[in-house]
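Look at one such:
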Amino acid sequence: FFQLSSEEQREGGLLLQINRRRAMQTMTSFKPLLDDPVAHIKQVAAEVCQGNVSGTVPLLVVAVAGFVLYLLLGAVFSWMKELPDLPIKELPADIVPKIASPDDKSKFYTQAEIDAIVQRVRSPNGPPDVIECFDPSTFQKLGTLPAMKAPEVQRRIALAKKAQESWAQTSFAQRRQVLRLVAKYIVKYQEDICKVSSRDSGKNMTDAMLGEVFCTLEKIRHMITSGEEYLKPSYRHPGILAIKSCRVEYQPCGVIGIIAPWNYPFHNIYGQVVAALYAGNACVVKISEWTAWSGPYLISFVHNALRASGHSPDLVQLIIGYGDAGAAVVSGGVDKIIFTGSPGNGKRVMAEASKTLTPVVLELGGKDPMIICEDGDLDAATSAATRGSFTNCGQNCINVERVYVQESVHDKFVEKVVKYIKCMRQGPPQLGPADQGSMTMPGQSEAIEKLVEDAVSKGAKCMVGGKRNRTIDGQFFQPTLLTNVDHSMRIVKEEAFGPVMLVMKFKTDEEVIALANGTEYGLGSTVYSTDYKRAERIAKAMHAGMCVINDYGVNYLIQALPFGGVKISGFGRFNGPEGLRGVCNEKAIVTDRFSFMRTKIPGALMYPLPENSNKLIMQAMHLLYGGDIFERIGGLFGLLKEILSIKKPKMD
C-alpha cells in the first residue's frame, strides 16, 4: 500500500509502522466484502436503514472509485475516437423572427378574422397560397409564409436524395461532430428557441424549456453516446450451419419523410431528425401550418451545423404548407414516413403510403390512464397527476387524460387537486408568469367545451373550470377537473387534448384494469402503489405501449427506451435501439466462418435429382429433429443407407 525510499524508512520508521497498521486495518475492513459480497451488502443495507453508516465505508469507497474509474476510462476512449469540436458561429441577425410589440394593437387579429382564416384553410376549393401566422395566446399577427405545393415538395425531396448519397458514406464520428454542434447551438440560443416556440404555440416558457429544449438535448446526448452501439452489426447464431458466420447490418433507409404536429414546434422536428441523420439518412420535414412561423428559424440550427461541418444543408428539407403538402411528402418518393397526429389522419397517411408500399411509423395519440392505489404515495401521485394533465395545457400525446383513484383515497385526492388548479395562473406567456398557456389549434377550445358539456349532462361534476376563458383574448380553456365520470361519456373515450382531468373511483385491481383498458387507445399508462408486486402486476396488464410506476412521463426522457403505442395509438417506435434501427434497412449477411472451409450444394440436391432424394431428406430430418436419441440414431443409419444408394440420372 505504501512505498517509501530507504532514507524515508530510516527517518520515518514510526510513520511506516503507522501506515502499515492502517493498511492492515483497511484490509480487515474489506475482508467481509471479499469473503461474502452478498451477505456484506445485505448487512450494509441493514446498517444504513438503522442510521449506522460506518460499516458502509469500504463498500462506498469501492463503488465511488470504480464509478470514477469507469467515467475516466469512458471519457478517454470516447475522446480518442472523436473528431474535434467545431466552434459555433453567430446566427445571422435577420434569421431570428421579428415580433411586433404587444402594445401595437394594429398587429392583432380579431376573433372574427381568426375564424375567417380557418374557413379559408378548410375551404372545399383547397387551401390558400399563403399561411397567415398568429400567436394563439394573443391573436397577434406573426407574419405570412408561402404555402408550398406538390412540385416544390418533390423538388426538395430530390435535393435531399442527392445530399444523402454522400452523407450515407460518413462515419459515426462525423455524424456525432454535427450533433455536438447542433447541441451547442441549442444551448446557446435556448431562450430564443423557447420564446419563438412559445409565441407560435401558446405554451408557457417552462413547458417550452422542458418539452422543447431539455428533451431535445437529452436525445442528442443519448444518440452521441449510444447510437453507434445500437447500429453495430448484430451477430447471430447460425444454428446447424456452424461453419457459417451471420450478422444483421443496419443501413440507411434513404430519405425519411417526417410529418410533425404543432404541440412542440421545436422538439417535433429535432426528435426525429437527430435519429434519422445519425443513421445516415436525409430528412424532409413537413411542419404544421398552425406553427409554421417558427419553422425556418428552428431548422436553421441543423442547417448551420451541417454547413460548418462541411456537409450540405440540403440534407434536411423544411416543408411549409397545408395538408396537400403533407400528401405530397407521402407520395413524393421518400423511403419511410414518420407521422405524428390523429388516428383519422394516420389512416389517410397509411392509405396513401400503401400505393407505393412506403413503410410508415404512426404515433396517433392516447387516452392515457393513471391508476392511484390506496397504498400509493398520495402527495406524489397528486402532483404527478396534476402535472401530467396540465403540462402544455394538456396538449401532449402522453397527457394523463384519465385518473382512476381507489375509493378510500378518492376524496382526499380530489381535494388536493382542486387546490392546485385554483392557484394556477393562465394568460399569454410573454405578458407575465403563466402556469397555463393557450390552446394552439383554432377550434380546440370549442371542441373541449362540448366534451365537458356532454359529460356534465350525463352526471359528471365539474369541480373547477369547464369553459373557455373569455376573460383573456386568445384561445384559452380553463384548467378543468371533472369527477363522477364514467365510460358512457364521450370525454372518457375521445382524446380531449386539453387541460381537463377526469377522476373516477375504483374498488378492486381487476375493476380498474378493465376500466383502464376500456378505450381504443393504448399509448402510455401510470400506476402508483408502494406495493411493487401489485404495481408490476397492474402494469403488466395494461394494454399500452408504455407504463411508468410511481412517476409520470419519465419514460420519454429515458432515451434508451422505445416510445410508441398499440391499438389506434399506432405502431412503430421512436427512441431506443428500436427507434434508431427503425430508420434503417435491416440487411442479413451470411459468409463463410473460415476461408478454407467453403460449402457447395450437395451433389444429392443438384439437378437432375436422384430418385431417392426425398427419402434422403426425410432421414436427415429424423437425424436432426427426432424426438429422442433412438430416433436420431435411426435417422443417421437411414441417411447413410440412402447416401450409399444414390443413383443420379444420366445427363445428356
